Amino acid sequence: MSSVVLITGISGSGKSVALKKLEDLGYNCVDNLPVTLLQAYIQQTLENDISQIAVAIDIRSHGNINHLPEIINKLRAKGIPIKVIFLDANTETLLHRYSESRRAHPLTQKLKHELGHTPSLEECIKHEKKLLQPLKETEHTIDTSTLAPSQLRAWVQELSEVQPGEMLLTFESFAFKKGLPSSADLVFDVRCLPNPYYDINLRQLTGRDKEVVDWLSQYDCVHDLINDITAYIQKWLPFYMQDTRSYLTVAIGCTGGQHRSVYVAEALAKRFSHHQPLCVRHRAQAQFYSDIL
């Protein structure tokens, strides 16, 4: 079965890491392909019996990137199950990454010609986000702001393995203090629950450790909130599946993303273990693993 993955998104968000991972998985990879060549390239490559194709197109690519959604729709209309992964990051993170790499933003020269002065890095980032917003709104987004490269590689692999007609259901814990992940489709706030952080013996543990699990399990309000979230998802999940989407990400947030949100995400994943493919992720800590269940 063929697998076609398009990597796109904001400059500095990790597209090279994602494309390299797909190359390691055996994909035939092309970076910075001109927008107008995408449809012909994918069709011809598939005709040559190359079944795993990964292409990166972004603001650097020659041609009008605003035409990309139309081209993607044409490929899907021809029966080519192209998966689009849009990588994003917040402005603060992007500024830091560019500062470390000391590279110029790819829009610098273009905006300099249009504006008559050399734009700041923040201006370039803001302009790029505005240009790509329509594409971001229609495709699956991974917010890489707080992700370690190993996490991004794992998530890209998971998404690449979703088969046509399947919907990957993901329960993802996160820390509100680090910002809301833009990849979330549904967000539930569990900061109202008792916080194990204030128990000195539990502070360094996570919501996956037995001691924290036992501590949170003693509270009726914890079970009530999990039951309410379960009921909501059970009611609306069939409607999301009818929408022919390939991914649904349910984000569970607490203050630090270490105890309550992790516990609730794990509990929900067990409740929905009958749904396949299913994934549970923990965003706030780089040492946390992303597991396909």
Topology:
Layout lengths: L2 E7 L5 H10 L3 E4 L6 H10 L4 E5 L11 H10 L4 E7 L2 H11 L6 H8 L5 H18 L1 E4 L5 H12 L7 E8 L10 E4 L20 H8 L2 H23 L4 E8 L5 H12 L6 E5 L8 E2 L1
Parallel strand pairs: 1-3, 1-4, 2-3, 4-5, 6-8, 6-9, 7-8
Antiparallel strand pairs: 9-10
Helix pairs in contact: 1-7, 4-6, 9-10
Kindly describe this structure.
The chain is of the alpha/beta class and 293 residues long. It folds into 2 domains: 3-161, Rossmann fold; 168-282, no CATH class. It contains 10 helices and 10 strands. It has helices at 15-24, 38-47, 68-77, 91-101, 108-115, 121-138, 149-160, 210-217, 220-242, 260-271; strands spanning 3-9, 28-31, 52-56, 82-88, 140-143, 168-175, 186-189, 247-254, 278-282, 291-292. It is globular and about 60 Å long. Residues 168-284 form the RapZ C-terminal domain.
Entry summary:
With about 290 residues, the chain is α/β, with parallel strands linked by helices. About 40% of the residues lie in helices and about 20% in strands.
List its salient traits.
single chain; 293 residues; alpha/beta; Rossmann fold; 2 domains; five-stranded parallel sheet; five-stranded mixed sheet; 10 helices; 18% strand; disordered C terminus
Distance between the termini: 22 Å
From the coordinates shown, what is the CATH architecture of the largest domain? 3-Layer(aba) Sandwich
Q: Tally of extended strands?
A: 10
Number of domains: 2
Q: How do the strands line up in the largest sheet?
A: 2-3-1-4-5
Proportion in helices: 40-55%
- DSSP helix count? 10
CATH class of the largest domain: Alpha Beta
The amount of beta strand, in percent, is: 15-25%
Element-by-element helix/strand order? EHEHEHEHHHEHEEHHEHEE
Radius of gyration: 20 Å
Spans of 5+ residues with little confidence (pLDDT < 50)?
286-293
CATH superfamily placement of the largest domain: P-loop containing nucleotide triphosphate hydrolases
Structural class of the helices, strands and pairings? Answer: alpha/beta
What is the overall shape? globular
Largest sheet: 5 strands, parallel
CATH topology of the largest domain: Rossmann fold
Pfam family, one: PapZ_C
GO molecular function, one term: ATP binding
Protein name: RNase adapter RapZ
Keywords: ATP-binding, GTP-binding, Nucleotide-binding
